[in-house]
Amino acid sequence: MSLRLLRVCELIKRELGVIIGRDVKFEAPLVSVRAVDITPDLKNAHVFISAIGTQWQKEQALQQLHEQRKHLQHELARRIILKYTPLLHFQLDESIERGTRVLSLLDEIEPTLPPDEPEIQDEGNTNNRDS
Questions:
Q1: Domain 3-96: which topology?
Q2: Taking burial as the number of CB atoms within 10 A of a residue's CB, which of 27, 28, 41, 94 is the most buried?
Q3: 97 with 82: CB under 8 angstroms?
Q4: Are 43 and 84 in contact (CB under 8 A)?
Q5: Domain map (residue ranges) of the chain
């Protein structure tokens, strides 16, 4: 991804976070913009949302964002000057939950591993050049 696209993604992420925090009220205790991925033509942007709460609250938050997509795009167009205002596609970011699941699986596996055995030194295979 080019430097320009990275800068646009970061700008959209920051501005959408402010707009969503100001204009949208959720059932979930905390909803945040985790990442934005934009197409090279700047016409579509995938916005990854993280929500803390029950599965129902997460789905409600995503549904609210889809319902208010036009308003959010309009506000984004007012705050960011681009040739095209990208069409926003919202998705839940499950990476934190997946990471937590992997760590818990690793913790479960760790106690079942045998303890480290001390290394056995092979005395017959010494290379002594002083002889």
A1: GMP Synthetase; Chain A, domain 3 (3.30.300)
A2: 28
A3: no
A4: yes
A5: 3-96
